[in-house]
Design brief:
- By secondary structure, this protein is an all-alpha fold.
- About 50% of the residues lie in helices and about 0% in strands.
- It contains 10 helices and no strands.
- It is elongated.
- It starts with a helix and ends in a 33-residue tail after the last helix.
């Protein structure tokens, strides 16, 4: 399991795509030092509600440890990007549990299933497993097309967790960089392509070639003489 494989599964799911679109609207979330911040563009009542939710705690310490293990399994650090925990994804998921209470029961049920499966396979709790044992359990539910029908409920839960993890991660600067998202960038328009001009028997006047496409001059306002000639 690696981040590219997880993203392939995520974007193959309409649920995942919808959650990403809803969670990553521009200007919706401004990151703070913890990775989960105050929300912009809201009414005062909404801001107060969000501040109250940030003060509340949903996950227990044991559940938080499971979340940290799992999100870093879904999106681990690599040579170019930090891990999910490093950019505050566990805090994001904590907030989402309170912001969307309908997610609480399936999320908590899935986290409890981890202990049940761990006890069945290894005779201990999930938080005491080593990395290979953790992977063995998650591989049971990480790939919907390969999972046994007996694990259908756990598959849905893991899809939810994966979607939330990616939603949180790609709402951060590190996530934008990983996707290659540049945002609004200044560019230079190089005019109508020469082959298009040629099709209509046109061309750019050679006398202006020396001043075409100078990025450093793009903020200057062109001036023209009375005969319609550009003043250089």
């Amino acid at each position: 399991m690696n981040r590219r494989e997880n993203l392939k599964v995520l974007f193959a799911s309409s649920l995942g795509a919808g959650l990403l679109l809803n969670a990553c609207q521009p200007g919706e979330k401004e990151q703070d030092a913890k990775g989960m911040g105050t929300l912009g563009g809201r009414t005062e009542e909404e801001k107060l509600r969000d501040a109250q939710l940030l003060k509340e705690q949903f996950f227990t310490e044991e559940e938080q440890k499971k979340i940290r293990t799992l999100v870093d399994l879904i999106l681990p650090a690599d040579e170019n990007s930090p891990s999910a925990t490093e950019v505050g994804v566990p805090e994001f998921i904590e907030f989402m549990m309170k912001d969307q209470p309908n997610l609480q029961t399936p999320m908590r049920g899935g986290l409890q299933w981890l202990d049940f499966e761990s006890d069945e396979l290894f005779g201990t709790t999930f938080n005491t497993l080593n990395s290979s044992q953790v992977k063995e359990i998650i591989d049971l539910v990480a790939w919907p097309d390969k999972a046994s029908a007996a694990y259908s409920g756990a598959v849905r839960w893991f899809n939810l967790l994966r979607n939330l993890t990616c939603s949180g991660y790609f709402s951060t600067e590190a996530g934008w960089k990983y996707m290659g998202y540049m945002g609004n960038q200044p560019n230079v328009w190089d005019g109508v392509p020469a082959n298009v001009l040629a099709k209509y028997g046109l061309s750019n006047p050679e006398k202006y070639a020396a001043i075409y496409l100078k990025p450093e001059d793009r903020a200057k306002v062109a001036t023209w003489d009375e005969e319609g000639n550009l003043i250089v």
